[in-house]
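User:
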Amino acid sequence: MNDTAKTLLRIAGLATAIALAGCGSSSNGTATASAAPDAAASNVAAAAPAAMPHACDLLTAEVAKQFIGPSATRTMKAQPNAHMTHCHYRSSAGSIDVMLGDEWDYINEGQEHVPGEKPVAGLGDEAHINTMSLRVRKGTRGMEISATGAAGDYYGAAADAETAHGQALEMKVAKALLPRL
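Assistant: Predicted structure:
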């Protein structure tokens, strides 16, 4: 798949996820595989990579409540395209949004030059953070986490403190989710 196609797929996935967020979609995008009828098919199935979990399999209610309090409520469980899943929790104390892609490029595409972008050592196989989100690669998969504190209007030093709080929360959530990926 060429870079233009990957970019268009990512944009379409994000646009769909945003649209679904407004609608409160609850599609889970899971499918059940049937058993292979013979030994040869079983060997092929065994060699296939493990199925990618849904973002909401990683960001569960328990995990969300740990970081944004007991009132955390899931507001989205979606699959915007065949390669990405999306999960979002919100509470009065903040929000956590996780996009999970079966390929790193779906998460990383177009994000490499966001102002303030910094690499993060020691998190997954590769990680980058900016004022908008944290992106982490583990193997061929990618995860994007956006987290915020309580809603409000922040200016000057307060805005800087809120950005730092969100980034620290993104890092904590990534450390909790990565072992499950």
